[in-house]
Design goal:
Layout: H1 18-26, E1 31-35, E2 38-41, H2 42-58, E3 66-70, H3 75-86, E4 90-93, H4 100-110, E5 114-118, H5 122-130, E6 140-144, E7 158-161, H6 162-168, E8 184-189, E9 199-203, H7 204-217, E10 225-227, H8 235-238, H9 240-246, E11 250-252, H10 259-269, E12 273-276, H11 278-285, E13 296-300, H12 307-315, E14 318-326, E15 331-335, H13 347-354, E16 359-360, E17 364-370, E18 386-392, E19 398-399, H14 403-409, E20 410-411, E21 414-423, E22 429-434, E23 439-441, E24 444-446, H15 448-455, E25 461-471, E26 475-484, H16 494-502, E27 513-516, H17 530-539
Parallel strand pairs: 1-11, 3-4, 3-5, 5-6, 6-7, 10-11, 10-12, 12-13, 13-14, 26-27
Antiparallel strand pairs: 1-2, 8-9, 9-19, 14-15, 15-16, 17-18, 18-21, 20-21, 21-22, 23-24, 25-26
């Protein structure tokens, strides 16, 4: 069969943009987007996306140009996930809570040609543009207003507003297909848990694969009702932006939310699915919420969820699934795939199992935990630490304009995640820490995640983060930063928290310092900024706890 080779009929480039074209046929009259009183069908959404793509082409946007978006979870943000690539351009969704300096760096580094700006981010984006050097070309701006607001074309610095872009577009526009499936589709900058974000480039093929993978692994049915509590700018909503088109889902958009808004949306729209970092689970379980009338599937990822938080969330009627991925994988590539026999276990044991990250998705070729010195797989004993490495079609093309960073992360046939984990005897992965968050105390490697998991079990603790504090004798000791739940009558002291931990973990793991904060510093995607807390712990000086 040597003469059989790829040919045009069997090698059309894979792209997730094709999902909306199919949705416009299969789910034409089904609801695609709900945003307050605004409702669109899939045929309408496809038409709107083609019109926007047409106007972008008339603006001179061509294949490979970067077009940025600074917007919350509103219909325009969803539509632009399709419309920008349909013009042949690369989608760059920017974290809307970044400061002007960082947005300016992102726009310059990406060489963005056009920026869609939500009206609430108008001033900060204009400030970011003002920071451009005189010789640097400025991107054009399109304002995304709320209904009834001043049109963007009449505002200084803006070439049009979103409605004008729609009005100008050709509904029959023949959208631009990728020349190869390895053409770039998205450019996402890594989350602000560190001070140096990098531009991650994903292809049409990789995004297609991670989207299908995520739907299969979560067993998402046709026509789900999906509530957007996860920011779409966070790794493109873990690929569920495109995934909802693939299954004809209803996208319930929220500009902003709190626990009350989430529960109201669940009741009003009969939500079936939603995603969120563990901080969202914590938000849903604080106070005394009533149990759900019907179960809601919720996918959590972004940080290892404490078992205590999982237990509380499921007691309310949420069915929690747990996945793992990075900006560099474009979505979730490891799922804690549930085994039926685990349903027979006690609730506490089930929560501990669900806190594990799990096994590779079907499109991932391989995952492993390897020893940094030998490069060999660690023992599958659930105890031996190593770095988590991945290999598969969902892995990024690389970092934009950063050959050195790309080579460092992608070597020896693996993508090195920087996460520290263990492999259990049954082949399930469990993340223990980021490599930079491991605390080395008296020569022992200490997982901050394990300490945090115990702290979350304290009835008064709302959030917890553990980092290293310098110590003259031990080198480093655990320092816990915690916030307390609202309405706590008897607030625990530092000694109380330390004693609670001593009863539940080995002595060397017990926090030697406990700092109470009103709120822990977080990124807009809900990740606790440990680099901020590390600096705070460092500023405290040596704990000097040689007698403990």
């Amino acid at each position: 069969m040597d003469q059989l080779k790829p040919s045009p009929p069997n090698s059309r480039p894979l792209t997730p943009i094709s999902f909306i074209e199919r949705a416009a046929t299969v789910y034409a009259d089904c609801t695609s987007i709900v945003y307050g009183s605004t409702i669109y069908t899939w045929s309408q959404t496809y038409l709107r996306c083609r019109k926007i793509a047409s106007t972008l082409s008339s603006f001179g946007i061509t294949r490979g140009d970067v077009v940025s978006v600074v917007a919350p979870n509103i219909p325009a943000m969803y539509e632009l996930h399709f419309a920008i690539p349909m013009a042949g351009a690369v989608l760059n969704s920017i974290n809307l809570r970044l400061n002007a300096q960082t947005i300016s760096v992102v726009l310059r580094h990406s060489e963005s040609k056009l920026v869609f700006v939500d009206y609430q981010s108008e001033s900060i984006v204009l400030e970011a543009i003002s920071l451009f050097p005189p010789t640097c070309p400025l991107p054009r701006l399109v304002l995304v207003p709320e209904e009834g607001q001043v049109r963007g074309a009449s505002k200084p610095g803006f070439v049009a507003d979103y409605d004008a872009v729609l009005e100008r577009g050709d509904p029959n526009f023949d959208w631009v297909k990728p020349e190869t499936e390895f053409d770039p589709l998205t450019l996402n900058y890594t989350s602000g848990t560190t001070s140096a974000p990098k531009g991650v480039v994903h292809s049409h093929r990789g995004t297609f694969l991670v989207t299908i993978d995520s739907l299969i692994s979560w067993s998402v049915p046709k026509e789900p009702v999906y509530l957007w509590t996860l920011p779409m700018f966070h790794a493109n909503g873990w690929s569920y932006t495109w995934g909802m088109a693939a299954v004809g889902g209803t996208n319930v958009c929220l500009r902003k939310f709190d626990a009350a808004a989430i529960y109201a949306a669940i009741r009003t729209y009969h939500v079936t699915h939603m995603c969120g970092a563990p901080v969202v689970l914590n938000l849903l379980t604080n106070g005394n919420p009533k149990p759900l009338e019907k179960p809601v599937e919720i996918m959590t990822a972004g940080a290892p969820p404490p078992a205590a938080v999982l237990l509380r969330t499921e007691s309310l009627g949420f069915v929690v699934s747990h996945g793992y991925g990075l900006t560099e994988t474009g979505g979730l590539v490891v799922f804690c795939t549930w085994k039926n026999k685990w349903n027979m276990f006690p609730a506490v044991e089930r929560a501990k199992l669900k806190a594990r990250q799990g096994v590779r998705t079907p499109a991932m070729a391989e995952i492993d935990v390897i020893d940094a010195e030998t490069g060999k797989s660690v023992e599958r004993d659930g105890k031996t630490l190593g770095e988590v490495v991945l290999c598969g079609g969902c892995v990024m093309l690389g970092y934009l304009k950063d050959a050195e960073g790309t080579a460092k992360a992608m070597k020896d046939g693996w993508f090195f995640t920087g996460d520290v984990g263990v492999m259990h005897p049954d082949g399930y992965l469990e993340i223990k820490d980021r490599s930079k968050d491991v605390i080395i105390s008296g020569g022992e490697n200490l997982s901050s995640v394990e300490v945090e998991s115990v702290l979350y079990g304290h009835p008064a603790v709302n959030e917890a983060a553990v980092v290293a504090r310098p110590d003259e004798f031990w080198g480093e000791t655990p320092c816990a930063f915690v916030s307390l739940k609202e309405g706590v009558k008897e607030k625990p002291t530092e000694k109380d928290v330390i004693e609670y931990c001593r009863e539940r973990m080995p002595r060397f793991m017990v926090p030697k310092t406990v700092v109470f904060e009103a709120e822990l510093p977080k990124t807009s995607t809900g990740k606790i900024q440990k680099f901020v807390l590390r600096e705070a712990a460092k500023a405290m000086g040596s704990a000097n706890l040689s007698k403990l």
